[in-house]
Amino acid sequence: MIGLVDRALALNPxxxxxxxVSGILRLWxxxxxLAIEHVETSLRLSPRERMGQPLSVxxxxxxxxxxxxxxxxxxxxxxxxxxxxxxxxxxxxxxxxHMGRLDEARAIVAxxxxxxxxxxxxxxxxxxxxGPRALPVGPAPGGGRGSMKPIDYLRCFAGITTREWLxxxxxxxRFFSALVRPLVWLAIFATGFHFxxxxxxxxxxxxxxxxxxxxxxx
Length: 218
Known about the structure:
With 218 residues, the chain is mainly alpha-helical. It folds into two domains: 2-122, Alpha Horseshoe (Serine Threonine Protein Phosphatase 5, Tetratricopeptide repeat); 150-215, no CATH class. Helix content is 65%, strand content 0%. It contains ten helices and no strands. It has helices at 2-11, 16-28, 32-45, 54-64, 68-81, 86-98, 102-115, 150-170, 172-197, 211-215. α4 (54-64) runs antiparallel to α5.
């Protein structure tokens, strides 16, 4: 995953979201310095676009570096910016506990409980599977392993088509722009090209074709 993001950033060094994703990956890969550097690069490239929780990621990186003062400062800003993100409260409470500020840690945990009853999440999502067959493998429903009937493909196609149509219709700006652009082209450009392309007859045609007639099907 890190290799793919590095390749994307090599192709487009101005890809702000790519730098942010790289910062998250570096954080979980145990490279907090690179995580902070990459998230800061993302913020410099796109300071106004909201993508993820950059301040929270930087606070976690400082926490893993055991720079608890810097971590607490970033996490407080992260909570102020996004008060409904539980991870910021968890790491901030841990920072205060490491700093010996237990009363403040308890206060942060109390605020966390108001958001979610899960104070300490399970680590099962980050645990490594034991053995080569951690999950049972068996035949897929309806026949052999991975087999699908034509009706299954039809259901998949219908679901994807319905999803895209609903997305298209719910995005009003996209819908109207799709209608306005060809109309603007026909109304403005076709009129101008009519005088350019309609002045000569090109064999084997016996007469010229008006540009608006030529472009209308497209």
